[in-house]
Recover the amino acids of this structure.
């Protein structure tokens, strides 16, 4: 099991990333980097492939160790082989498969099989049918910008997790992603953005907040 | 004597034709002197005393070589001097420095020539220029002990070069054991790419073997044996400065340049008759290593497993495809992280320990677009928002439309934060105003006004 940041443990069924599993995040963002941060800080090597716009400064602020990161911005059409090679050396690989040329099912199954053998974790920023765990950011609101003044300070985000097996039940958490110090923290009930700046007509509906 | 052919310089990317002509050039020069060493593609060197005596003088020899290469259609220049460093400089102008006159010849050269073959000497050359030592003669006039204490090992080496002495005191030791490394290919490898990939690992074991004994080699001999028994053997200048990637590059050049029959078959045939049977790297002229080795291919706390995985992906996609991010300094979103290809020295492009006034403070963006995306920012009435030279906005931004995406309503904004970089250099001056915009879907953007147009450089989500 690879460790995750304390604030994210409540979202994952066993409080960590199970080795040999695939975790799918709806789109690339700070959530992907946050999931990789604790493992990297703990000594694991992390490979980021297919994401040329990954913000490494933000990743370092979340806790990722840039000295133990490999970037492959453009894996090209043979990305399954690239991912398989990276999994040999890195315990965690963050991948964004190209949207235009989806890989056939057999290729994905072979990748999953080698993943289970190598005992790494594959974090996919995109769609991956059959992922053991799926996470997405439902809503997020940045704090700190006014009407021509201030600067971006922190973002309060609601993250939902579901999946197969143990993770079948949906859990949601409100998190500071990132907080003022750049790290991830659980947002207290008074931080939630139930504010009057919601445009009229879009009153937030009641939603279950996991506990 | 050094023979330099500027047309055949292979630094601008591989070209099979050029590599073949390089091999032909080496073959021609070898006809005059058997012991030729290749300094870099297009440049080769050999000791001139023996051949010059045979052919009746250095000028006569140079004339014959130039004529023979002109028959081949290659433009060449030759230079003669004591020592390789001076001879390389002499080859640039095609001069012959009389024996004993090397020190005087070098005294007139500018300090920047120290950095020609050894990129790590660039800092030293810049420093010497700032200190007012503009020519090698000025530098050579300084006492050795002062140079060693002020500039260290690198400075002492450069001082030896400036005085016309050799790069290293050539006390070549007979190698204690066989330090060569061999890789055999069974079945025979018909393609060049896997051999080049194997060469990288082979070079690593060669360097490890040398480093374990505290040695380094002045030259490395690369021998490729083909299945039909033919052999291609070249000596390349090493000086302890080549990395594994550089040795693999030389193997690739050597394979590219080979053509099987001396008659010269045209392109279109496989340049590997029957396949490659073995690859051998032999260190030539082994000398004691100085401490600076560690900086070159050291400081890697990279485990074998990770290095093998990275090098395998590099063999698939190319050397620049696998990068390591190095955090450094800078003002703009894209400047602060320098991606360095795996295996090279990890140094940021801009130093991190400076204040860098003018950078956007606070949270770093989660996404930094490699190329800034064009966008339109409009106010309530639909007109484009402009920023005057005095940072006055025409109106408050109301909608942000990044090209290729739907228009979004702006819920919060801050700026303009002006930045005027390098105003003293008209060609490099950059003048922009930065904004942070938060939109209704919860995302935030780093937008920049440049020359009247809006660009989005980074995203926060």
């Amino acid at each position: 099991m690879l460790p995750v940041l304390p604030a994210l443990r409540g979202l994952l069924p066993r409080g960590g990333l199970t080795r040999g599993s695939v975790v799918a995040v709806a789109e690339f963002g700070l959530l992907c980097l946050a999931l990789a941060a604790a493992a990297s800080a703990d000594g694991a090597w992390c490979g980021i492939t297919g994401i040329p716009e990954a913000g490494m400064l933000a990743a370092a602020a979340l806790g990722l160790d840039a000295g133990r990161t490999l970037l492959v911005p453009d894996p090209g059409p043979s990305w399954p082989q690239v991912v398989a090679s990276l999994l040999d050396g890195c315990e965690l690989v963050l991948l964004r498969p190209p949207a235009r040329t989806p890989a056939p099912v057999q290729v994905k199954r072979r990748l999953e099989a080698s993943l289970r053998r190598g005992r790494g974790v594959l974090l996919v920023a995109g769609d991956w049918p059959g992922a053991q765990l799926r996470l997405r950011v439902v809503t997020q609101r940045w704090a700190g910008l006014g009407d021509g003044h201030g600067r971006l300070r922190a973002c309060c985000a609601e993250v939902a997790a579901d999946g197969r097996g143990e993770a079948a039940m949906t859990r949601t958490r409100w998190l500071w992603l990132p907080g003022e110090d750049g790290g991830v923290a659980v947002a207290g009930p008074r931080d939630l953005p139930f504010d009057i700046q919601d445009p009229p007509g879009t009153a937030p509906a009641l939603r279950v907040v996991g506990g | 004597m050094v023979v330099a052919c500027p047309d055949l310089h292979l630094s601008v990317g591989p070209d099979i034709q050029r590599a073949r002509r390089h091999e032909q050039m080496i073959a021609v020069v070898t006809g005059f002197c058997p012991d030729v060493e290749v300094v870099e593609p297009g440049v080769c060197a050999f000791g001139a005393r023996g051949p010059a005596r045979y052919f009746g003088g250095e000028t006569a020899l140079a004339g014959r070589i130039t004529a023979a290469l002109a028959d081949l259609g290659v433009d060449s220049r030759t230079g003669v001097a004591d020592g390789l460093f001076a001879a390389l400089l002499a080859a640039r102008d095609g001069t012959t420095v009389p024996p004993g006159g090397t020190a005087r010849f070098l005294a007139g050269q500018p300090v920047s020539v120290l950095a020609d073959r050894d990129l790590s000497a660039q800092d030293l050359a810049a420093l010497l220029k700032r200190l007012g030592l503009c020519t090698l003669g000025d530098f050579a006039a300084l006492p050795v002990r002062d140079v060693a204490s002020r500039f260290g090992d690198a400075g002492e080496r450069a001082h030896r070069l400036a005085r016309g002495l050799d790069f290293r005191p050539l006390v070549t030791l007979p190698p204690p054991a066989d330090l060569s490394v061999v890789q055999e290919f069974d079945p025979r490898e018909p393609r060049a790419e896997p051999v080049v990939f194997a060469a990288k690992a082979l070079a690593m074991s060669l360097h490890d073997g040398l480093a374990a004994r505290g040695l380094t080699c002045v030259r490395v001999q690369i021998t490729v044996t083909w299945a039909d028994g033919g052999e291609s053997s070249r000596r390349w200048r090493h000086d302890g400065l080549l990395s594994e990637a550089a040795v693999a590059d030389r193997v690739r050049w050597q394979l590219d340049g080979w053509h099987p029959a001396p008659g010269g078959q045209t392109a279109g045939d496989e340049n590997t008759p029957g396949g490659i049977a073995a690859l051998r790297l032999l260190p030539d002229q082994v000398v004691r290593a100085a401490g600076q080795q560690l900086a070159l291919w050291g400081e890697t706390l990279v485990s074998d497993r990770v290095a093998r995985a990275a090098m395998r992906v590099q063999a698939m996609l190319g050397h620049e495809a696998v990068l390591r991010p190095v955090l450094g300094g800078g003002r703009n979103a894209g400047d602060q992280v320098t991606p360095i290809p795996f295996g090279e020295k990890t140094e940021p492009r801009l130093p991190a320990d400076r204040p860098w006034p003018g950078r956007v403070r606070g949270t770093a963006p989660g996404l930094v677009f490699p190329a800034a995306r064009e966008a339109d920012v409009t106010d309530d009435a639909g007109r484009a928002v402009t920023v005057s030279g005095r940072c006055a906005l025409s109106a408050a931004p109301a909608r942000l439309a990044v090209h290729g995406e739907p228009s979004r309503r702006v819920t919060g904004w801050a700026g303009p934060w002006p930045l005027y970089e390098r105003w003293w250099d008209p060609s490099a001056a950059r003048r922009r105003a930065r904004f942070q915009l938060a939109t209704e879907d919860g995302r935030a953007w780093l937008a920049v006004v440049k020359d009247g147009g809006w660009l989005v450089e980074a995203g926060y989500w």
